[in-house]
Amino acid sequence: MYEIVILGELLENNKSGYKLGLILNNILGPGRKISNGTLHPLLVRLGKEGDLTWQVDPKSTRGKKNAQITPQGAEHFQALMREPVPENARRDETYRFKIAELRQVDPEVQLQILQDFRSVTQSEYDAYAEHREHVLKLPNKPADEIAWTATSFDLYLNIATTKLTWIDNQIHQLTMKGSH
Q1: Distance (Å, whole) CA 62 – CA 143
Q2: Which residues of 120-153 are buried (b: 16+ CB within 10 A; e: fewer)?
Q3: 14, 66 in Cβ contact below 8 A?
Q4: Which of 46, 135, 141, 167 would staple 118 via disulfide (CB 3.0–4.6 Å)?
């Protein structure tokens, strides 16, 4: 799903592969890095598929090339943003990428992404709350083990609560813009 960020960023302006890598790394966050061995083949594939082309940077004395999105690439980006996020190990990362590029899509698509993210996050919150309650009722477990397990679920509940608050604020701002 790195394509979401690459194509979304190219909608703003042309960028080098190096710059796209930096942007992806910033979105991935500390401790996560996209390697050149992953990024370069992806850029080559997007070029072969017609989503981007390479242009020599006129300011460069070394013939540096920048990626430029094509109309097909812009359509591909819009399609990726409209696609539901699959329930898999990359779900959180995919939402992170879509949220990073929300500014590049229509308000209706923004709202749908935020509502879907809210639904997933609420489900996570509900599951953590249910597990926490279950742990508190376990017989024959040492009290300190139960307390520690409940505390770990409190962390997950707080993270989910923070996400829900942020999502609700974004939805509110989006709907207020639409009502003016």
Answers
A1: 67
A2: bbeebbeebeebbeebeeeeeeeeeeeeebeeeb
A3: yes
A4: 167
With bands split at pLDDT 50, 70 and 90, how would you rate the model's confidence at 180? low
3-state secondary structure of 65: strand
Q: How many residues does the chain have?
A: 180
Model pTM above 0.85: yes
CA distances from 145 to 47, 131, 136, 148 (A): 54, 14, 10, 5
Four-way CATH pick for 2-85: 1.10.10.10, 2.60.120.620, 3.40.50.150, 1.20.1640.10: 1.10.10.10
pLDDT tens, residue by residue, 123-154: 999 999 999 999 998 888 888 899 999 999 99
Is the model's pLDDT at 25 over the cut of 80? yes
